[in-house]
Each structure stands twice: as C-alpha cells, then as structure tokens.
Amino acid sequence: SALLGKDPKKYDPTFKGPIYNRGCTDIVCCILFIICILGYVAVGILAWSQGDPRKVIYPTDSRGQFCGQAGTPLETKPLLFYFNIMKCASPMVLLEFQCPTTQMCVEKCPDKFMTLLKAYTNKEDFKYYKNFCKEGLEGLTVTQILSSGLCPAMLTPSKPFTRRCFPALDQKKGGEITVGNNSKFDDGEGNIRDAKDLVAGVKNATVVIEARQVAMKIFEDYTQSWYWILIGLVIAMLISLLFIILLRFLAGIMVWVMIVMVILVIGYGIFHCSMEYVSLKSEAGSNVTLKDLGFQTDFSVYLHIRQTWLAFIIILAIVEVVIILLLIFLRNRILIAIALIKEASRAIGYVMSALFYPLFTFALLSIVIAYWAVTAVFLSTSNQPIYKVFNETACDHSRKICEPANFSTSSMKAECPDSKCLFAFYGGETVYHKYLIGLQFYNVFLFFWCANFVTALGQMTLAGAFASYYWAFVKPDDMPAFPIFSSLGRSLRYHTGSLAFGSLILSIIQIIRVLLEYIDHKLQGTQNKCTKFLLCCLKCCFWCLEKFIKFINRNAYIMVAIYGKNFCTSAKDAFFLLMRNMIRVAVLDKVTDFLLFLGKLLIVGLVGIFAFFFFSGRVKAFENTAPNLHYYWVPILTVVVGSYLIAHGFFSVYAMCVDTLFLCFLEDLERNDGSAERPYLMSDRLLKVLNKKNKPEPAE
C-alpha cells in the first residue's frame, strides 16, 4: 500500500466534495507564466513596430519598392512586370525565391506582341513601349538601351494574376500552346521561338491559375448551399446530443452486442478456416510444411498449404478462448464501466452547459492562433531589403550583396558588364535581425504554452463541474447553481500556476519534437544510417512521452479540481490511484473509446449519407430543392468534416465526464466505507454492481 502511494492519514472522512476554501497553487510557475505572457506581448509590439506586412501583400520590384502602395509614386502602378519571364524557369528561382530578371511596377500588363527593335522605329509604338521601361531613354540607341537593361527586348500579351503579369498562355484543341493567339513569337533578339518556351517560366503560375478557377467554383458552391450546410450541422448537433442521452439507457446493450459480435466473427473465422483446411486434404502438394516451402514473395501460395489454415485455426481459437476468459473474470469490471458511462450521461443532464463549453475553448484557441500567426507574419517581414548581383555569364561576384545606388560605377559592374544589382530578399545585420530567429522560436514556444494552457483550463473546468455533481449527496440541491462558471472561477483564481506548470511540461516536449522534425528535414539528404536511426528513436520516444504526459496532466487537473492541491502532488495522487486500479482503468478506457467511436461513426455516417443523397440529386424528392452546384462533393465534405468536429466536441466533454467520475468513484471507494459517518456517494446502480450499500443511520 505504501509502495503505491496510499497514505491512510490523508483521507479525511469529513470531505464532501470539491474544496471551496482553497489556496493558490504553484505560485512560482504562475508568476513565470505571467512574465512570459508580458514578454510575449512585448515581442508582438516589437514585431508590429518593425514588421511590414506589405512585403507579403504587395509585389516588390527590383529596387525593393512596393507596387501599388498608397501614398507613393507607385500607387497607380499595382502590377509587377518581368523583363524576361523565361529566366524565371532557372533553378536559382527555387533557391533565391527571386526571378533573375529586372522587375518593375506597371499600371497595366502588355496586351500585344512587340519588340524593342520594331517599336523604336514607330513613334506611337515606342510611346506605348516606354510604359514598360525604366527612365533615361532619351538619346539612346536600341543597342545602348538593351545593354543598359533599361527596357525588355520584347513584350508578350499578358494577364495580371496575384498582381503580377504572366503571359496569356492558351491551349488549342490539338494541344498546341499559344500566346496572344500566336504559336510563335519574336524574342527581340532576332529569334523566332515557340510559345511553349514560355511555359517553363510560368508553370507554377498556370497551376495556381487553375487552382484559382477551382477555388472560385467552390466559393460559388458555398454561396449556393451554405444554409443547407448549416442545417446538416444542426442535425449533427441534435444527433450527438440524442446519442449522449441514449447512452444512459443503451450503453449496456451496445457493449454486450459488440462483445457477442466479436465472438461470433471469430467463431465464423474458425469455421471458415476449418472448411478450407478440410477442402485442401485431397489437393496435391497441400501437405508441404511452411518450413519446407520457405519464404515466397507471392503470398497467395501460402493459402494452398494446409498448415497455413491450421495456424489460422489455432491463432483464432486462442484469441476466442482469451476473450471468453476475460469476459468471465472481468465481467464485474465491465459492468462498472457501463454503469459509469450511464452515470456520465446522467451527470451531463444536470450540467448541460458543459456541452457548449468547447465553444469557449475554441474561441480562446482562435485568439491564441491568430496572435501567433500575426506576430509570425510581422516578425518575418521585419527585415531590410537585400540586393544581390544577378548575371547571365560567369562572374566572380555572382549572388554577392550589392548596393543599387552606386552599382553602375562599382568594380563589380566593371568586372561583370552584363551583371545587374537586383532586389533578392529581406534580411538585415542589426542586433534585432541577428536575434530574429530567437524571437520566432519564442513566438512558437509561447504559442504551444498558451494553447496547452487553454486546453488545460477547459479540462480542469469540466472536471470541477462534474466532480461537484458526483460528490453532491442530494442532487442537484447540493450542487452549485452554475457548476461550469463556479469551476472556471476557482480554476483561474487559485490554480493558474498549476495549469501553467502542466502545460509548460507538455510544451517543452512538443517544442523538442518540432526541433527533431526540423533536424530530420535538414538531414534528409544525408546517408548516415546511424544518424537516421538515432533520430527515429528520439522521435518515437518523445511521441510516447508526449502521450504519457497528456494522460498524467489530464488526471492531475481532475485531482487539482477536486482537492485544490498543487500540480505535482495531484499528479502523484492521480497516478498511484490509477495504478492501484489498472484493470478497471484499462476496461473503462476501451469500453468508452468503443462507444464514442461508434457514436462518431454513426453521426458522421448518417449525416454524410443524407448529405450525399440530397446534394447529388439521387433522390427524386430532393431534385427541385437541392441547389445547382459545380462540385456536389464540396457541401458533402464540409458537412461530413463539420459533423465529425461537432461530434468530437460533444464527446470530448463526455469523455472528460467519464474520467472525472471514474477518479471520484475510486476516491469514494478508498475514502468511504458505507457507514452512516462515511457513506458512499456513488449512485445506487454502482452500489448494486459492487454489491455494496450504505448503512442506515442508527435510530436515536
């Protein structure tokens, strides 16, 4: 008993439920959490003062200026034009994230074929051509203009997409690529080229264009079917609520039906294997042993060997016997699990507001995610523009940092005459920029910590509400008027430190897993098998550790909600309490998992089938009612995913209720003995299953 952490002195017979007169726990961790939150706010303010989301919103030209930015000379030029889009097909684009050609902001994209050589001889054409050239063309020849990189050698009909000008490519029925209705074009250097040569430069853009068209159709489908989708989600919510209510009456039937079905399926498997074993008796070569046959890549060969079916029969028979023995010896524990599940349904009936608490958790998580995302965007856009040397021929200064203001007179330009100083990316060399990666790491870590804190708050709040139900001797008279709000207030007022402590431990493990994934991603190209094996082992270990910590935290929060002790003490008490009842824990966990899985499957299946027949128009009664859609799978998939999330939200509350009542039930057994001074507070159904009863008070 001492080894399992049971201390009889700590059990107070006067305990009647969650302690209301409690004190603050884990104060040091609470102070640390508040300081880190203040630091998180400071990082956000710093990022917002230094960052510039316009770097994400607006395209940037070769000078690092924003196209279309209000209040600047480029306000009327919102589009980015590439001098030579074919250079965007270079592999360096994937490495530098920048196309190695001059880019400038323009008012509109070119809508006609034109070369500089031909436009220069026509006053009107050259006036149009200047819209896509830099300043300073006066008095220069075509050769001088091209050598100085002031104009593109050619213009091709283009269309704006994501504020960038891409060639207006099209495809005829025969598969021929055209641009501006022409299959060939003059590249401005005297060469006639095929339009398909432009494809490589805009390959990614055409994929995005097609995706954009699909997205527009999907958006139109949502505008046509959104109210029907809401109706489907409301139906899913009602079915989820109905299922939880019915568990009070049908939990036992569902569990025993499931067990009987498993036994029957295994029995049928034994029968089928026996028939196959007998039928192969007269077949030639079927008596060969598996040892003599050896390993075969064609696994169907083994199905013609009698020994294979004999092995199947033995394995299934052993499984059948084990299940039957477990039923015989664990029958009472299964009955306890069923009774607790029914009791959880009854508890939710008294605390109906708990079903909608996940909406509050979702709202808080949305705030945390939004703050993290906005801060990450501002941090990533708080760099300064960096310019690099881009060239077509060999050059020692290629990809080196340069200054565009004096590049034309620099030694780099003198040594590499055809080079250009173009905007490459955003970076910086200041102290702030040097520690920018650290701020990003802090942003990610605090995101995990805050998200886990919100989840922990939800678990402790629900645990306190359901614990007040269990320990109420007269229900609902001995319960708080508003159990959820009462429990939420206690959790925030007294146990913020405990919540922060548990979520901090979990966040550290999660950030380590993120770092391991990052290292694994960086080492993908290496062939060191030892390193790969070590990383795989570490990832597996920390995955298991995260699952274990989540289990410990969940039960620790329940004990904190009941007794008001600090996190470590509560975690220890919960762990040893569960270890003293390992078999009950395993049985209840599997029975609950099965019922909730069955509920999710039922809800998603029913709503999904209804949505399929409605939106696909397969049922004549709905032909005139269903909306006309481009893709009928869009609302169907939305309803199915939404139904699953709704069912998961309802059942997460139910699972928390079961876990809380289970710990309260175990505490009740160890704390009380059924006497008048220490009566059991469990339901009559649980008392009947345990063959226990409360003794009446002695007559005076």
TrEMBL record:
The entry's keywords: Antiport, Cell membrane, Glycoprotein, Membrane, Mitochondrion, Mitochondrion outer membrane, Phosphoprotein, Transmembrane, Transmembrane helix, Transport
Pfam families assigned to the protein according to its UniProt record, in alphabetical order: Choline_transpo
UniProt entry tagged with the keyword Cell membrane: yes
Keyword Nucleotide-binding: no
Transmembrane domains' residue ranges: 20-48, 226-247, 253-271, 309-330, 350-379, 444-472, 492-516, 594-617, 629-647
InterPro entries: Choline_transptr-like
Subcellular location: Cell membrane; Mitochondrion outer membrane
GO molecular function: antiporter activity
Principal subcellular localisation of the protein: membrane
Membrane topology recorded in Swiss-Prot or TrEMBL: Multi-pass membrane protein
A GO CC term attached to the entry: plasma membrane
Reaction(s) the record says it catalyses: ethanolamine(out) + n H(+)(in) = ethanolamine(in) + n H(+)(out); choline(out) + n H(+)(in) = choline(in) + n H(+)(out)
Role: Choline transporter.
UniProt similarity note: Belongs to the CTL (choline transporter-like) family.
Protein name per UniProt: Choline transporter-like protein
